[in-house]
Amino acid sequence: MTTTYGELLEAALSTQIKVELVERDMTQKDLAEAVGIGRPAMNHYLKGHKSMPMPTFIKVAEALGLTPGALLGRAEARIQPESRTA
User: Fold this and answer.
1) Residue 83 maps to a domain
2) pLDDT tens digits, residue range 10-53?
3) Using only C-alpha atoms, what is the Rg of the chain?
């Protein structure tokens, strides 16, 4: 089974959001409330069960005090260089 770059990026983004939460002493519930969605929905996004819609991603970045580009860049940096061409 081949993993696409998009799948790798989504997984890296989930990991990065979790790291950002820890660094800010925030919970998934705190983030969900800041974004205006339920905690179960946030959990589905962060566990990779559902893809995060772009408007939600933008709100997540803002709630973490980051631009969407900065959050995406930090996530992309987690992907192994050899996987970036997939």
Assistant:
1) no
2) 999 999 999 999 999 999 999 999 999 999 999 999 999 999 99
3) 13
